[in-house]
Amino acid sequence: MTTRFIVFFFTLVLPIIAWTQSADFTTLFNQGTQHYTAKEYEKSRDAFAKALELDPHNATTLTNLALAQFQLGNRPLAVGLFRKALTNDPELTQARTGLKFALTQMDVREIPHQIETYETVRKKLLAPVPTTAYLITTALFMFAAGWILVGFFGQRRRAIAEEKSLPGFPVIGSILSLGFLISLTLLSLKIYDQTILRATIISEKVSLQAAPGENQAALLDLYGGMEVIVQNENAEWSQVTFPGSITGWVKKSAILQTN
Q1: DSSP-derived 3-state class of residue 223
Q2: How far apart are CA 201 and CA 199, in angstroms?
Q3: CA dist list (Å): 207 to 28, 39, 198, 220
Q4: How far apart are the first and last CA of the chain?
Q5: What is the pTM of this model?
Q6: What is the pLDDT of residue 202?
Q7: Which residues of the chain have pLDDT under 70?
Q8: I need a labelling partner for 38 at 20 to 30 A (CA). Which of 107, 146, 150, 221 fits?
Q9: Structure confidence at residue 166 (pLDDT)
Q10: What's residue 5's pLDDT?
Q11: Which letter, b or e, does each residue of 54-84 get, where b requires 16 or more Cβ atoms within 10 Å of its Cβ?
């Protein structure tokens, strides 16, 4: 199965834009889809880019723009756009599938780094789950545990007052309380993670420099598709950290901020 066929299939299964979108947005989105179907990828890219100007956080449009960029050979940029789509909608299956596929089509480059526990937790538990899911789960655990424990302590108080045998230990309430603490911890980490500015390297290769400006000492090379954390900005330069590795400066044009 060719690359084009697989990526084209991703477009066919993308959901239809919600009815709440403006007529101009819908027109541009439909134009982008039609151009993509006709393999007019540059026109498709331009139409989806204009649609994003009207709705910058639309995950479906970001995904379609990523597909068009991928077909035009801009694979690192496509990876960044897929990630940006998933930031806005972590449950968008098409974006996740597209990201996974795009990464398999790129040369995987490894650079020295230490695998951080937080980044592992983020990848497996935080990034794939929307904040609302953790909010709902935390609330459900809190109310369920609270209901059982309040009932238990009420029974205990009455038993003491009436000098009867005490009720048994509330095992289910304890389990629900533990679930509440775990869910609350994950919710707190999710909220914290949203404050971390992340970006994707969209150039094929860029040097991480010791300081902003031209002709500075190069620390190491970063490659297209790598995800970095933005620490600071200075005019045309951004200070970034490759997780588990060192911090340096790259040109802003070499990265795409994804959240």
Answers
A1: strand
A2: 7
A3: 37, 34, 18, 6
A4: 33
A5: 0.81
A6: 95
A7: 1-22, 108
A8: 107
A9: 85
A10: 44
A11: ebeebbbbbbbbbbbbbbeebbbbbbbbbbb
